[in-house]
Write a structure and sequence with these properties.
The chain has eleven helices and 14 strands. By secondary structure, it is an alpha/beta fold. Among the domains are: about 1-135 and about 400-465, Rossmann fold, CATH 3.40.50; about 225-305. It is rod-shaped. The chain starts with a strand and ends with a strand.
Length: about 475
């Protein structure tokens, strides 16, 4: 469907305009004069964009954009109106009528299906890669089978597979990118832990490298020492008893000596008593012969020595326990290193999938769509024309490729809106008309002076919302 006439009323800063539309329509002027408003009005007409009071000219209650189209050699008029209701809420309505008065039901759906519109900035399309998201092509099951992490992206693919292929690839890439971000976060945590734990274990190993522990020998020595300590304790207890007996004997001898001394003065009177006492004394003396009060200090020292040896054994055991713990920690570190390696493997797989989406799958979509431009190829995320990267082409050559792609993005695209033509050079202006498709309308705006080098009748200068 070709647009022939355009009427705009009370839309943004435009009060009322009637324009006879041609294949190429060039609009220029200073900033904020209404150039972009014309493009916005065309999009509003065709898409009935979200009801927004900002579309209304200040102080007005309604705005209207109407377009007369040539549809299968019949003229029809599409009208989109925005009005404020009683609650001052904006409401959008659309009507489509043929010139003979015949109305079309579901005008919005009809317009959307029959009259496609694309809108871009000139600066953006100079690198045709930016147009990929508009190409009408789909991701297939075969594409998904190329992804290693298929189970991760399948639910998203199944939910969105009817959407534009490049939009789907972006969704899938985001899922993979987010998963890789989470994976790498875990990887960083594990890696930092492993690095610190590895250094700690090296230090522990250096401290314990001379520790030798024979558990059987340790148990035997410990048992021997414990028995020795027990024997010494018994011996000490028996010695204490013997010493007590010896002390009692000594005390009795002292008492007898005292008695003898007292009786000395009565020697004559108690000679018989002395003889009896001497006899008893001799008997006890014989019993005491070779005896002495032994000290327990030696036994205490022996017990102390044995306890010291026992403590040494326990210290050795504690060191051995540390050695065993070191061994377990090494095993734990080994498991964590395996976990780190697995996370690295997962990260590498996700990275390969992301690169695959950006590369092979994107190439598949473009190849499947068949842009129909001789010599055009997409390799490693770069467009090539006759084996020359698009980025190395002249501006006019890049623009030519961009317009060819624009013309094939969607079968139903009838109108192309382009802002920012001031980004182009004079050579591009001169060749502009040669880039256009005859079955489409182009609206191109420019800030500044007229399109002097473009041979075209439909050139408008906008001043304060009006055509000068």
């Amino acid at each position: 469907m070709i647009l022939k006439k355009l009427e705009i009323k009370n839309f943004r800063n435009i009060e009322h305009l009637n324009i006879d539309v041609e294949n190429l329509n060039l609009i220029y002027g200073k900033n904020a004069q209404g150039k972009t408003s014309i493009n916005k009005a065309v999009k509003f007409l065709l898409e009935g964009t979200k009801a927004d009071v900002e579309q209304l000219k200040k102080g007005e209650q309604s705005c209207l954009v109407a377009g007369t189209f040539d549809h299968e050699n019949r003229e029809c008029k599409l009208t989109t109106i925005l009005k404020l209701n009683k609650k001052d809420e904006p409401v959008v309505s659309t009507e489509l009528k043929y010139i003979n008065g015949e109305s079309v039901d579901k005008a919005r759906t009809f317009a959307k299906d029959m009259i496609g519109v694309l809108e871009f900035k000139i600066a953006d399309i100079l690198n045709p890669t930016t147009l990929l998201n508009k190409i009408d092509t789909k991701v297939t099951e075969e594409d998904i089978n190329l992804i290693e992490n298929k189970t991760l992206i399948e639910p998203i693919y199944n939910k969105n597979k009817d959407k534009n292929g490049f939009e789907v690839l972006k969704l899938l890439e985001k899922i993979l990118y987010d998963e890789r971000t989470f994976n790498n976060r875990d990887l960083l945590t594990v890696k930092k832990y492993n690095e610190k734990r590895s250094l700690d274990l090296i230090n522990e190993e250096n401290l314990l490298k001379d520790v030798v522990f024979d558990k059987a020998k340790f148990d035997t020595n410990k048992e021997t020492l414990l028995k020795s300590i027990a024997t010494l304790q018994v011996k000490k207890e028996n010695l204490d008893k013997e010493n007590a007996t010896t002390k009692a004997y000594k005390d009795k001898l002292l008492s007898i000596a005292t008695t003898l001394s007292a009786l000395e003065s009565q020697k004559q009177e108690i000679t018989n008593a002395i003889q009896i006492q001497n006899a008893e004394h001799e008997t006890i003396a014989q019993q005491m012969k070779g005896r002495k009060i032994e000290t327990t200090a030696d036994l205490d020292n022996g017990i102390e020595k044995e306890n010291i040896e026992l403590q040494k054994l326990e210290t050795t055991k504690q060191e051995y326990i540390k050695v065993e713990a070191l061994s377990l920690n090494k095993k734990d570190l080994k498991r964590n290193i395996e976990k780190e390696n697995n996370l690295i493997k997962v990260s590498d797989g996700l990275t390969n999938d992301i690169e695959g989406i950006r590369g092979k799958l994107t190439e598949n979509l473009i190849e499947r769509f068949d842009l129909g431009i001789k010599g055009l190829a997409y390799i490693d995320k770069v467009f090539y024309l006759n084996e020359i990267a698009i980025t190395e082409l002249s501006e006019s050559e890049s623009l030519k490729v961009a317009f060819q792609i624009l013309g094939r993005i969607k079968k139903d695209t009838s109108i192309i809106l382009l802002d920012g033509a001031e980004a182009l050079d004079d050579n591009s202006y001169k060749q502009l008309k040669t880039f256009l498709a005859d079955d489409k309308n182009y609206f191109i705006t420019k800030v500044g002076d007229s399109f002097k080098t473009v041979n075209n009748e439909n050139i408008f200068e906008m001043v304060d919302g009006k055509i000068k």
